[in-house]
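Ticket #293: bound-state structure for adenosine monophosphate.
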Amino acid sequence: MNPGAAPSSSDSLRVVTTVPDLRAAVDAARAAGKSIGLVPTMGALHEGHLSLARAAQSECGLTIVTIFVNPTQFGPHEDFNKYPRTRDADLALLALLGVDLVFAPSPDVMYPAGFSTFVDEPAVAKRWEGQCRPGHFRGVTTVVLKLFNQTRADVAFFGHKDYQQSCVVRRMVADLDVPIAIRVCPTVREADGLAMSSRNRYLDTAERQQALAISRSLQRGAECVRQGQRRADIVIADMRAVLTAAGITRIDYVALVEPQTLEPRDTLDGPTIALIAAYVGTTRLIDNHVLRP
Ligand code: AMP
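RESOLUTION: The complex was predicted; output attached.
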């Protein structure tokens, strides 16, 4: 300890790894009249995650950040094993922020022997990420519902960055009458426009530059709409051209969709979400932008 240092909020960060310890901390906060805010993450924290934690802190009496790299949302050939795990740095960031509680369970705590129940939302989850990553949303909804039940939080905070995920979670909460409010917070970007992502650390210098084409492509889509273009196929072709001109050729989708159902739009006659998923080198990145014709 540096005796001259200003007192830091880090003194208050508590890390729990079991559900009983989590519940005890939540019960104590409730008994003290506090509302509970939940921020689910897979760690490798960046400013996007921290913005969710700040939103939780400003609305709730107790903020819980969960750190769990959820195996059930990764496909067999995806990056579960190499996904960045930066626990010490994550805890230091959350301590600095003054977060109250971190829940960092092991896979055994979340999926003990005999675990067999999954939550499946087949409609909003059907296209885009759901189609490119079979089983992904089943893993997401299952772990998110478990976190909701484990924490019994009042409010949960998600990022617009994973737009389809936020829609699938909202659908699940409505369908299953889960007593929690969902907030979706804006995407936090690097100064040059790249959406922050834990996976950005996979990019080398050249790829980091190439990845900028994704946010540029979304801007191009917005520009087309501003100029009056209403045909989705034309806007999509323009957006794809921005990606390919930058050398991004492995494109999972460029889509213009209705904001709630995520069904593709032919004519851009109302608010529309532009969605992109593409590979930069071997790194798969997603991003999105709201278009308002
Ligand atoms: P992850 O750790 O990638 O599972 O993300 C945890 C939460 O942080 C999800 O709700 C994400 O949508 C959100 N998130 C990730 N990146 C960003 C970002 N750049 N801006 C805002 N929220 C984000």
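RESOLUTION NOTES: The first strand starts at residue 14 and ends at 16.
TICKET STATUS: resolved
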